[in-house]
Amino acid sequence: MTGTAPLKRLYIKTYGCQMNVYDSERMADVLAPLGYGVTDQPEGADLVVLNTCHIREKATEKVYSELGQIKRLKQEKASAGGQMTIAVAGCVAQAEGEEIMRRQPAVDLVVGPQAYHQLPELIARAHRARGERLAADFAPDEKFDRLSTERRPSGVTAFLTVQEGCDKFCTFCVVPYTRGGEWSRPAEAIEAEARALAEKGVREVTLLGQNVNAYADPKGELAGGLAGLVRRLAKIPGLDRIRYTTSHPRDMDEALIAAHGEVPELMPYLHLPVQAGSDKVLKAMNRAHTAESYLRLIERIRQARPDIAISGDFIVGFPGERDADFEATLQLVREVGYASAFSFKYSRRPGTPASAMPGQVAEEVKDERLARLQALLDAQQRAFNAAQCGRELPVLFEKPGRHPGQLIGRSPYLQGVHVSAPDRLLGQIVTVKIGDASRNSLAGVLTSGELEPV
Length: 454
Hints:
19 strands; CATH 2.40.50.140; 454 residues; alpha/beta; five-stranded mixed barrel; pyruvate-formate lyase- activating enzyme; Rossmann fold; 3 domains; disordered N terminus
């Protein structure tokens, strides 16, 4: 082992959303000074972190199943004279911390999403077999104040958290209870982190938040909310692409709509969840928008940026949803025309208002509705991708492909693009003529100008 090799191995398994991906990256950052280097296998790891998500169905059961397997690895390492520390982080940790410790004694630490900056101290305490094992409640500003802007990006794209929490209280959602209320980071701190990423070769950032378009500079030094932040970050040298997710229709203001038409660095892709097309269901969800207001919002966005790709989220089988309500969802999908979307069956989340609502929909009905919705969304995604054939698109090459001489990049619309191209183009934005399209990706060839040797 050389003097620069990691002394200890860190395995992080990430569940759920992009914010958890960002959090996992930052966990690796705060643990690096302790000598932890990331490994892609839990076997033999010195520290295992399960960074959990409470949104998806059966999330808690999946965590306990994984913990059972990790426990066996911990026992095997102990038998060989070693030591493995197990930590559960994220939203399941926040919601069920005490229960996790009770049900799975092999867990050494439970760390909520606002407390992972405390990991080094908590690990030290665990190794001394004393002190706190549960750390779930810290203010978000304390977390970010304790994190360094010195990140080690793994490629030319990076996530950047700008806002956390939610004040919307949708009746199906646990985020307000696990991530807390809406809170925004200071614009100057975000800009510093973005500049540091750009200096390390990052060319595209995705701004993250549970309701990212609710962003407001807490110091009041930056006007314009998320639109103002986007315009400020667009001035950073080397930062050529900006995206953001996830948005709420209630927070999609005119300034942000205008930015889509005026800031070339802001990519023409918008994830704007609607969840349902029935006003009755939307009211029961406490979404505070109607199907009509959502459709008019999409119209204004497309007036500002006609080629924008719209993505969304849908829940089928919400309590009280009848056939006519579901048909309204299908009609909304037909009117919008989505480039991509995520769709799920409603599942009860303990403690949420919807879990106690009457009119719970039978599983077989949910299955049938989800299949019909996904067939429609799939057809729209295929049609959107097929419409790119024959076009020349700027593609940011991110990594080598599966085949020799192949690179994979992203179009402005977030589609994966496969191209035969030399490695020297990694990290570059080049023009690609699209020749083929599938449901999930595009394929093309470099234009003649990109074939010239450097």
